[in-house]
Amino acid sequence: MKRLVASDLDRTLIYSAAALQLTMPDPEAPRLLCVETHKHKPLSYLTETAVGLLTELARTSVFVPTTTRTREQYGRIRLPGPAPKYAICANGGHLLVDGVSDPDWQRTVTTRLAGECAPLDEVRAHLRATAGPAWLLKERVAEKLFAYLVVDRALLPEGWIEELAAWAEPRGWTVSLQGRKIYAVPRPLTKSAAVRELARRTGAETVLAAGDSLLDADLLMAADHAFRPSHGELADTGWTAPHVTVVPESGVLAGEEILRLLTARAAEPSPAPERATVPAPGAAPGTAQAPVAL
Fold first, then answer.
1. 181-240 pLDDT, tens per residue?
2. CATH number for the domain running over 3-110+189-266
3. Prediction pTM value
4. Pick from 113, 249, 282, 286: CA 20 to 30 A from residue 240's CA?
5. 80: exposed, middle or buried (C-beta count within 10 Å: 0-12, 13-18, 19+)?
6. CB–CB of 195/219 below 8 Å?
């Protein structure tokens, strides 16, 4: 049985020094391998054990890195083993095949965004008009698809995120606060849509997934079985689902355990259990949704 494994990268499989959650120096700490550098500085790491697990996972399944990073940011990462044939960048906006963005998928995304949500320029203008100079550090656009703000969270006014989400919702956009970043993302732009397209193309009969943030929720819901760590925005909200396994570890050791479980599940001879859906907080009974990103 062909299995497709779609996993978020940052704070799910790979970890910055700030996100490792290890005490350094510690003789019991695992050995780490740097998998990302930028301007000659190391940025992201895997444990040595995770390196072996990821290499095995890529051998036994169709492994698809699935990230909100832009293509340029994704290109800085050097995962162990052969380069994945497929990758998903910009939260589903780009489907890479052998490192090149698939033009058919680009056209599909462009059509969906034009028909289902307000234009990016309108959203950017609103962000710039309402963000406070005291707490706004940067305003960025990713791949001309979505926008995000880098903010000083300590100075972020109470209720501003909720007001932005209420403004964005009827315009077809979602809002998510993750660390120091506030994302404004078109509702049709999802990791799950790109994963479903890859499952169709590859003939995968089972989809496994992993992620830690609110932008990963739709990906986890679309999988036959999924995994999340005990840290991140999904953990902070207590979100889970019947087909989602929450690993007890956090930090880089959670990434290692997630890879261990994905590798074991990908090697199973029998089909994964049928996926289930659960309603988002506040949704009407029987309504299956990912959690609302606020």
1. 999 999 999 999 999 999 999 999 999 999 999 999 999 999 999 999 999 999 999 999
2. 3.40.50.1000
3. 0.88
4. 113
5. middle
6. yes
- The residue type of 256 is E
* Phi, psi at 57, each rounded to 5°: -60, -40
* Inter-residue contact 11 to 215 (CB < 8 Å): no
Q: Where are the alpha helices (DSSP H) in the chain?
A: 48-60, 71-74, 103-116, 120-130, 160-168, 191-202, 217-222, 233-237, 252-266
CA–CA dist 174, 166 (Å, integer): 9
Q: What is the residue-averaged pLDDT of the chain? A: 90
SS3 content of the chain, % helix, strand, coil (to 5): 35, 25, 40
CATH T-level fold of 118-186: Hypothetical Protein Ta0175; Chain: A, domain 2 (3.90.1070)
Rounded to an integer, what distance in angstroms lies between the CA atom of residue 188 and that of residue 55? 32
Domain boundaries, the chain: 3-110+189-266, 118-186
Helix axis angle, 252-266 relative to 48-60, nearest 10°? 30
Measured over the CA atoms of residue 118, residue 123, residue 126 and residue 131, the dihedral's sign is positive
Nearest CA to 72 out of 44, 49, 101, 42 is that of 101
71 and 143 Cβ atoms separated by less than 8 Å: yes
Q: Sign of dihedral through CA atoms 54, 103, 175, 199?
A: negative
Do 69 and 161 meet the contact criterion of CB atoms below 8 Å apart?
Answer: no
